[in-house]
Specification:
With 140 residues, this protein is α+β, with helices and mostly antiparallel strands. It has helices spanning 34-47, 92-102; strands at residues 3-7, 19-24, 27-32, 60-68, 84-85, 113-122, 130-137.
């Protein structure tokens, strides 16, 4: 039976594992980006109530819908009131990286994900940004 839930959160892209780099005395220094750390913690906390008692095993399929804030240029009456595709940055793969890392505990390893469908939309008029997640097991 699939696990489905919606996280009332504005998704942010995560690159390089949420770490930033700075050069200090000629050497690269890596540190956690506070914004990314906060986002990942929020995803983990908000999704905890949907986490199975034991991590899922075997091949998995995920369906993700990232619902991003609608830009003002699409707020007018001539534009659809429903969700619209968002063919702009952030890239869908960077949105997935952080989210899937924060959902650890639903599976043993995210390498188990063998099938993924990702949608990237702007909100419908009056809707808040969110992330919709569906996780299901595939036959072996």
């Amino acid at each position: 039976m699939p696990i489905s839930f919606t996280l009332p959160i504005h998704a942010i892209p995560v690159q390089t594992g949420g770490k930033r780099m700075a050069i200090h005395n000629g050497k690269p220094m890596f540190f956690k980006d506070k914004r990314t750390s906060s986002y990942l913690q929020n995803v983990t906390l908000l999704s905890a109530q949907y986490r199975p008692e034991a991590p899922l095993e075997g091949p998995l399929r995920v369906v993700l819908a990232f619902v991003l804030p609608r830009p003002l240029r699409l707020a007018g009456a001539k534009h659809s009131q429903w969700r619209l595709h968002a063919p702009v940055r952030p890239d869908w793969d960077n949105l997935c990286k952080g989210l899937l890392d924060a959902l650890k505990g639903f599976w043993l390893d995210d390498a188990q994900i063998c099938s993924a469908v990702v949608h990237k939309y702007y909100t419908s008029k009056g809707e808040a940004p969110c992330v919709e997640v569906q996780i299901s097991q595939l036959p072996e």
